[in-house]
Amino acid sequence: MKIVQVECSLLEFPLPAPLRPSWAPGRVFTTTNCTLIRVHTDEGITGIGAGPEVGMLGIYTFADLVTPYVIGKDPFRVEQISPYLRVAARDGSYPWAFEMALWDIIGKATNQPVYRLWGGFNDRMKVYASLAEVPPVEEQIERIHLLRSQGMKAFKLRLRRPTIKEDIAVVEQVRKVFGDEIELMVDANQAHVMPSPKPIGAWSYEDALTVARAMEKLDVNWLEEPLPRYNTKQLARLCSEVDIPIAGGELNIGLHEYKTLVDMDCYDIIQADAAFSEGIFQLRKVASLAEMSFKKFIPHTWSNGIGLGANLQLAASVPNCPWFEFPVDPPAWTIESRDFMLAKPFRIDMDGTIGLPDLPGMGFFLDEEAITKYSKHNWQSERFSS
Ligand SMILES: [Mg+2]
What we know:
The chain is an alpha/beta fold.
């Protein structure tokens, strides 16, 4: 089999309500965007992948930095193609969607879901609702009620209010209202500060320690990204000083960064993402390193429906992933906003779990009409013929 053509589309979808995510204080998003790629083969099989929005840099990355080196190659030779993606990650931006597409092709060619090709540990994953915003406590409670009525049983709250006292008070209140009827996680989003009009300074070590101790008392499953990404020594110190698991690593890049995080014991839970961190099969190596170090590997999935579906295959394949992140925070971030490019959006069941698609490859069905409607830019390579 040979790769004969690559297509790249930049998609933009208007959100049903403005989104004010905790990780960009003061910013309001009215659209969600992604970089979609399709990799065509001479046997008529097409692989699909998607990454975050990086504007025209997305087209440059796939058109100039990836396609010229992979056209004519066998899509099964993932390890031969990976080095090109690593160079493209340095000179361009987030080329990892290409590896998703390769595995989509391999799964379709072998008539197997990708997670089964990789060991298939789970056919169904326990999910947690990954919220985005930091609404007032009454509204936070309302949103949890709504999602509970749709089957959700675990919730990741965001901690990015002006003071840690306010953050702790909200989690205390939520725990008081719902008791042990829900499971909780918290995400401080201190590792990555997006440009915004109201930057909130990163927590000090003492802040992180205070919050971690408070979350322990509230029986929170983990504290995520309590400190800046490369503050490895203090992350390791915090991790050893508290009992609550510390999670992070969603936007680290490259196998070597994850080796450092594991070797230094910066986190109990490694959260690499197949759209942001490395190629999806390369991240299986990170999951294995975590497994060998008695750590959990629970991928970050906040990008779009395709990123979510690819990370679901990765998560289900490994033995050390007890949870799956399901981004949803209505009214802005709905399943329809997240999965607008998919004819079959990813949904959970009423028992708070998600079943793996019983389909070859990654299990995506594109909504071609939506893709045409929401495409801002399209590029395609010439078709290769040997
Ligand atoms: Mg996070």
